[in-house]
Amino acid sequence: MGQLYEVAMCVRMLARAEQPKSSIELQKVVRQYFDSLGLSTQGMLRNRWRLSDAAPAEPSKAQKAPLRRSARSRLTVISGDASGE
User: How far is it, in rounded angstroms, from Cα 33 to Cα 24?
Assistant: First the structure.
């Protein structure tokens, strides 16, 4: 969503807030960042985001990556000795 700066600031403030003897004000700022980014329950509720209980759907056959041959199947057996004779 283009919030790279906000995420970076949240991480920086979180690192500072986790230090011993960090201020309560700094911890409040981190909580506000979490809320604004939707990383907390309150933030998710405010953004009206919901987590789905359903497992992700299996990709259809059209979306699956094509099967690759194994490395062993790509090797070729060459007769003769190692000297090339």
Answer: 14
Instruction: Express each pLDDT in 29-81 by its tens digit.
Output: 999 989 988 888 888 888 888 888 777 666 666 666 667 777 777 777 777 77
What is the chain's Cα-based Rg?
27
Tell me the whole-structure pTM to 2 decimals: 0.53
pLDDT digits (tens, 9 = 90+) for 5-22: 888 988 999 999 999 999
DSSP result, the chain: ---HHHHHHHHHHHHHHTSTT--HHHHHHHHHHHHHHT-SHHHHHHTT-----SPPPPPPTTTSPPPPPPHHHH-----S-TT--
